[in-house]
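User: We ran a pulldown and think these components assemble together. Before we commit to crystallization trials, I'd like a predicted model of the whole complex to look at. Sequences follow.
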Amino acid sequence: MTKAAVFADHLAEALDRSGSPICAGLDPVAERLPAEVREGRSPVDAIEVFCCGVIEAIAGAVGVVKPQSACFERYGPEGVGVLWRVIQRAREAGLVVVLDAKRGDIGLTAGHYAAGIAASGAHAVTANAYLGAGTLSPYLDAGLGVFALVRTSNPEGDAIQGARLEGGGTVAELVARELAEFGRAHTGARGLSAVGAVVGATKAADAAALRVAMPDQVFLVPGFGAQGGRADDLHAMVRPSAKAAYEKGVLVTASRSVIYPEASGNDWKSAVNDAAIAMRSEVNAALGI
Amino acid sequence: MTKAAVFADHLAEALDRSGSPICAGLDPVAERLPAEVREGRSPVDAIEVFCCGVIEAIAGAVGVVKPQSACFERYGPEGVGVLWRVIQRAREAGLVVVLDAKRGDIGLTAGHYAAGIAASGAHAVTANAYLGAGTLSPYLDAGLGVFALVRTSNPEGDAIQGARLEGGGTVAELVARELAEFGRAHTGARGLSAVGAVVGATKAADAAALRVAMPDQVFLVPGFGAQGGRADDLHAMVRPSAKAAYEKGVLVTASRSVIYPEASGNDWKSAVNDAAIAMRSEVNAALGI
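Assistant: Here's a predicted model for the assembly, 578 residues in total across the polymer chains.
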């Protein structure tokens, strides 16, 4: 088993323990934080306090968090410092951390990114495979799981990802096949690969073909909730005949609908906790867990 | 003219002034630095001293530098602090700064990346358009130029970038057409777009078709020197009937061969200066400048 395959089993165990294949996205934006968090704090300090509060609020309902690197990087060195501390806090709360950084570069350079991401404490990273599936090796060699972009939920993604190839299929399906082949060497004891795929929740129509191409990949499915993805859309993404939460091969992610819930009359952390529990119920019901 | 189109003219002026369309890549790796720079310093401090020395050494020969974000990010918050200071130093030396970060995310998130990159002082950024050319808008809206990956020099890039589409052409050519169309609105007074393309120096065979698809794009051409790209390979990349350095529409980049020159008996900064001048002569001779 490779160093990265250990991540695949670690993720499976976390989903088993939490009982739901869901993930909370940490996309903190200063203007959207609760007034009491913002008051008397710089934007970047407020983001740190907020993220630590969210982690505390969701840790009982969710097994995985996905901090959005860009939301921290926008504040430069100070923001990256906050990101690293937030990742540590999430680890201390027993959560699996997928850093949403969508890195993509050739071998030598990917190795530098991998070193930094591993040092941050993250367990996995999102990545871009346009430069070839083989360029993802340095992340796996550093023991990180990878979720590579295959089919994204934004409308502008269609022109390239949806383009049809000579001989049939789309560009996204080609990327899917490349990832599946590349990821085979990094399969853990529970049959899942440490090389996963990002497949947008609004792209359910494409999901069946992608699942055929990637039988052992975990689909990280962003866009649930605020971006319009619905629980029913998940069926085509699930691995056939899967029963346990981890076997489904999906990691359904919501960010804004969980971390910025509509005012509920409660304090903000209780509202975040309620939103995480509601998402969990909705996803589990749809998946028959 | 858009805010970003100003970058296209700024770049053209810088290349005119320097008299050569070349760019030095700053890819600092602690183990490769001169012994006198490493001695008594932490790796990240040594990188700062080294990069500032390289900037001083090349500023007379080169108009553009391209710091590789990964080399700094691997040191976390401290490394990003060094990156930001190095970018400032390059600006003070009158250089155009292209941050090689290959970012790629959907709109809202790209906006956060753009805010951080603009705050760093960089003039432009490398990006990934797999999520659609439209996702590059936030960088341009922040006044940054963009060089999007089209055809990379690494062998693993062929499987996806070189795949043939129904109706003809490759995936890279489709990305090229998307970028050209998207970039038209961001064309400066000198006829170049602020939306450029990364085309590897070793992919000369594909360059002619890419130049047809992208008549007004500046091709950022990495891989010159250490990665095997040769001056003769540049001909197919140049805009037809271009005369002045900026009109060529190429920005030829070398990293390792300039910043880690073979021992020359001189002190290391003189050796870097010599390597930059040698590269400049070789590229200008090949391009008839």
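Chain A touches chain B through 57 residues (CB under 8 Å). That may be worth checking against your pulldown data before setting up trials.

User: Thanks, that helps.
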